[in-house]
Amino acid sequence: MSVLCVGSLTAPGRGGLARSGIAMSLQTVLTSLTRGGLGSIWGRVTSLAASRRRCSNISGPTEIHIQRLEGENSGIATVLMNRPHARNSLGNVFVKQLEEAIEDLHQDKSLRVVLFKSQVKGVFSAGADLKERAEMSNTEVGHFVHKLRSLMSNIELLPMPTIAAIDGYALGGGLELALACDLRVAASSAKMGLIEVTRGLLPGAGGSQRLPRVVGIGMAKELIFTGRRIDGKQAMYIGLVNDTVAQNDLGDAAYQRALDLAKEILPQGPIALRMAKQAMNKGIEVDISSGMAIEEMCYAQVIPTRDRLEGMAAFKEKRLPHFTGE
């Protein structure tokens, strides 16, 4: 397996690519799909090779790694979060390196699934770095939270399916990071919550918008208003996570289950996966008729692909398809 380290130098920002939410018009959505979807936008970002060279210029600790699996698992990448002294809290270095990792992943067309995993036992991410936050002015806090919001949106905009493996505490911004992923798997002993109101705040990195879309408005209000923490079993019951598993001795049970899920996704058509993700993510923001139009536009991009022809040929020949992403 190969590992990519991500340094603290930043490439040009992408905050402007964050979704505009319900206000986005159907015409804007269809135009972006017609022009080749999100891939064409990201094609203008700095090349992956140049991004990797930043590893030789790291100043400060490396808190984010990208691990690309090989062999039969080639196509799966894991974002490893490793800030043990601060429980993977979202500090400046951590956020910068995660921004760079997301840029690298977005440009890598060979990837079919991305997992997010903590290397700190017992914690996914404890949320905001309150020690750093205490040193910021009100204006600086506003700018930093805006950066966090853009980061979470860029995670959501990754074209391939993403899975958060929650093997410990995922609180505040840590849970917001998991909510930005497509799927979530948690250890039954994990603790999750948007606890910002207990600090006189509200979720500011997308949690107030994504949680209602996942668990429903009533349950989201209850969790956010109370700042309640729930475990993996409770999270499974309300639909916050897709699956929950008993923790193992190594403390990576959720990751192992997430990896199994990634292996189920891996052999499927990569273009079909990306278009299905776009159709659902964009369609859920509009009425059903507009959603049908979005689905039609996404489907139209799959029709001329070699993968579609391969899928039909494999069915006819009674064999497994071999998709190439073309």
Question: How would you characterize the overall build of this protein?
Answer:
By secondary structure, the protein is α/β, with parallel strands linked by helices. It has a 7-stranded mixed beta sheet, with helices on both faces. Strands 5-7-9-10 form a 4-stranded mixed beta sheet. Strand 2 and strand 3 form a beta hairpin. The chain is globular. The protein starts with a strand and ends in a 10-residue tail after the last helix. About 13% of the residues have low confidence.
What is the count of DSSP helices, taking H or I runs of 4+ residues? 14
Biggest β-sheet: strands ordered side by side in the sheet: 1-2-3-4-6-8-11
Mean pLDDT score: 85
Distance between the termini: 25 Å
Assembly classification = single chain
Indicate the proportion of strand residues.
5-15%
The main sheet comes to: 7 strands, mixed
Helix content: 40-55%
Number of strands: 11
| Cα gyration radius (Å) | 19 Å
Low-confidence stretches: 7-24, 34-58
The helix-and-strand class reads alpha/beta
String of helices and strands? EHHHEEHEEHHEEHEEHHEHEHHHH
User: What sort of overall outline do the alpha carbons produce when their principal axes are compared?
Assistant: globular
Question: Helix and strand layout, with pairings?
Answer:
Layout: E1 2-5, H1 26-34, H2 38-42, H3 48-52, E2 64-68, E3 76-81, H4 92-107, E4 113-118, E5 123-125, H5 130-134, H6 138-156, E6 162-166, E7 169-171, H7 173-179, E8 183-187, E9 191-193, H8 207-215, H9 217-226, E10 230-231, H10 232-238, E11 243-245, H11 253-265, H12 270-283, H13 288-302, H14 306-316
Parallel strand pairs: 3-4, 4-6, 5-7, 6-8, 7-9, 8-11
Antiparallel strand pairs: 1-2, 2-3, 9-10
Helix pairs in contact: 1-13, 4-6, 7-8, 8-9, 12-13
